[in-house]
Structures are given as C-alpha cells and as structure tokens.
Amino acid sequence: MKFIHTADIHLDSPMHRLEAYEGAPVDEIRQASRRAFENLIDLALSETVDMVLIAGDLFDGDWKDYNTGLFFIRQVRRLSDAGIRVCIVAGNHDAAGQMTRRLPYPETVHVFSSAGPETILLEDLRVAIHGQSFGKAAVTENLVRRYPEPVAGYINIGILHTSLTGREGHENYAPCNLDDLINKGIDYWALGHVHQAEIVCEEPPVVFPGCIQGRHIRECGVKGCMLVDIQADRPADIHHHALDVIRWEKVVIDVARAETIDTLLERFNDDFEQVLASHDPLPVIARIELCGATDLHHRLVSDPEHIKQLIRSTALASFGDRAWIEKIVVATTAPSQDMVDVGPLKELSLVAHDLVQDESKLVALGEEALSTVIQKLPADYRTGEARIRLDDPEMIRELIEQAQALLVQRLRKADEGP
C-alpha cells in the first residue's frame, strides 16, 4: 500500500509581511498555495497512490467565498476519477466550529467527525484509519486517549492534528506524549500542526510532514509531503517530497572590512547567487542580514531605507523574478578602532548603550518621550503593519541605533569642517 501523508495546506492563505515593489513576483506568490496543492495531486496520480491523508488545516480558516471550496473539489475530483481515496481531519484553523460555508465532496473523500474519534475500514486494502477532527480552534485535551483500539488483521493508521508535547512557534493543541502514540498499537501515525517536517519516531512511524508551502520567514527551506510505502513484512518506506513553488530563506551576508557600498553589493550578489542555485529552479523570498565589523556601519544604520533599495535593485538587476527581498536587517558593528575615549562621540555611545541595554528604559522612552513626536509624523508611521510601535522595545532599540549612527555621521562631518 502506498499513500501520501500531508497536512497544513492552508489553502488560499496569503503570504505574510511582504512589501510590494517594482519587479516583485506578486502573481506567483498570490497563487502559491494552490499551485503547491496541484503539485500534491499530480504526485498522487503519478505515483498511483491508494489514498491521500490530510492531517488538519486543509483550509486557513472560513472561506472568503466559495471559490476556495470549488478549487479543492475540482482537484480531489481528479483523485476520485483515478480511484484514490482522501481522508481528512480538521485542525485548529479549519475546525468544524470555524467553518460557516460548506460544499458536498466526492464520495471518495471522508472527513472525520469532530464529535468523537471514529474508524473507517478500507476492506480492499485491509487498512483501518482512525481519526477525529477539531470541533473548535483551541482543543486542549489529549484526543489520543479516546482513539479506538487497532483492528486485528489490518494495517492501522491514526490521523491526528497535535503539537505532541509542544513545538516552538505552535500553539499547544491536542497535546499528548510520544508514549501515548506508541502504546496505542497503531502502525503509522499521520500527524499535522507542526510546519516543519519531522520523523519523530521510526518504529512505529510517528511523522509530521510539515506544510506544503512556506508562507513567511519562519517557514524556511523545502516544504512538501510524505510519500509512504507500507508492506506487511518490512518497515515503512517514508520519503519527503517537495511540493512548494516558492521558497523562503534567511541569508546572512558577512560584510566585515567592506570599505565601499560597491564591495558590499558584490558580496551580496555572490552569496545570494549561491542561495538561488541551491533552490533552482524555484524563486526565493529572502530576508537578508548584513553582519560583521565594517567602516560602513554608521552609514548603513543611519539610512537603512537606502541600503534596502540598493540591495533590492541589485537583486532585480542580477536575478529578475527569481528573487524577492522580504526584509533587510542591518546587524553590522563599527570597527573597534572606531571607539573614542572622550568627546561627544563617547558621550553619545554611552547614552545609547545605556538605553538599549534596559528594556524598561526603552518602553519608558517610547511611551513618554516619543509619543508626542510620533503624532506629528505622517499617517504611514502611525497606522498599519509598518507603524512605529512605541510599546515594542525591539523597535525602539532599532530607532535608537539609527539615531546614534546618524548623529555620529553628522558629528564627524562637523569635526572635519568644510
């Protein structure tokens, strides 16, 4: 028996925290989740699998309109025509209580009940599949304890949307221990909820396939599903198969000892070309972090918008629609010889250092000193995702570092004279 184990499809979910700018592949990104799902259907057909198991969060939430549901039905009908079954449990994003729109699915699609665990038997395959959907978004009880006992003489598969004992970045839903799963006597546990692929246990297999398409910078690298081949007389053969159509990466560029902007851009170009080659032919959405001790530090920190556009224009000129720069983080430092023992630069350094080391001072500065100033700025700085958040110590810290770098530049120019 061969099947696909997938989860966390989040169909029609948008990419998060992306800036639209000239040359960015907007249309490609907008359709990414659908194209990745089409790849999943293509894989199921080409591998002639017996079934597709979806372990929660097929949808990102209630449909905005019926087009999301119609797209899904059109795709699974391709499986139905080939005699491939689909078994689904709902997760926290598409829990039964969250969804107000519904459409009838083909008869080959089974959605497990949220009222309690149930078992379906596929007699031709001698397979028993156990599962339970989420009835509400926040399920905090251990669902495994109520799962039915294995059916004798059948290959038993459990489908479960769970965080297990907890995973960073994921809500602790349907928590359970690995022993809870192992001791249940199930031959394969098809899990969902965690967006990073992971084989938690090999015997019996306890598996997270990860999401099929990264949607933000915390979902970097290859995304896809598990292709599983189970035979009665040998261990399960489990392979991760890529499905994504666009990829996220964090790219650190060491600009240590770079003396000119041209040198910095050359290093970016060389390093980023290697990143693109490793993901070829897929385009890459990248967060660029500049690090290292460089004479350019104050210039970069004082005018981050300028370096952001320089890097984006370099990426566009060199790589076209293969690259989208999501964000540029300036994490450089000034060379050690840049420090001075006396004078205004030293005083400025001490004041800035004192502020950024104390989170309470950062919050107080934002709430007391900066609130009046912010009100005088254009609306873009006060509303929306790009707003300056005065209760965010990290954002205040960045503002201080930018202000310090700008003042250093101005003080140096004043010291040099005309």
Can you tell me about this structure?
The chain is α/β, with parallel strands linked by helices and 418 residues long. The chain has ten helices and 15 strands. The protein has helices at residues 26-30, 32-46, 67-81, 178-182, 261-279, 297-302, 304-319, 344-356, 359-375, 393-416, and strands at residues 2-6, 51-55, 85-89, 109-111, 118-122, 127-131, 155-161, 188-192, 198-202, 205-208, 224-231, 234-242, 247-254, 284-293, 323-333. The strands form three sheets. Strands 4-3-2-1-11-12 form a six-stranded mixed β-sheet, with helices on one face. It has a six-stranded mixed β-sheet with strand order 5-6-7-8-10-9. A three-stranded parallel β-sheet has the order 13-14-15. A hairpin with a 2-residue loop joins strand 11 and strand 12 (234-242). Helix 2 (32-46) runs parallel beside helix 3 (67-81) and helix 9 packs across helix 10. The chain is elongated, with a radius of gyration of 26 Å.
Using brief descriptors, characterize the structure shown.
single chain; 418 residues; alpha/beta; 6-stranded mixed beta sheet
Average predicted local confidence, pLDDT: 86
Spell out the helices and strands N to C: EHHEHEEEEEHEEEEEEHEHHEHHH
**Integer-rounded radius of gyration:** 26 Å
Helix fraction by DSSP (H/I, runs of at least 4): 25-40%
**Beta fraction of the residues?**
15-25%
| Distance, first to last CA | 80 Å
Structural class: alpha/beta
Total helices: the number is 10
Number of distinct beta strands = 15
- Biggest sheet strand order reads 4-3-2-1-11-12
Largest sheet: 6 strands, mixed
Unreliable spans are none
- Overall geometry comes to elongated
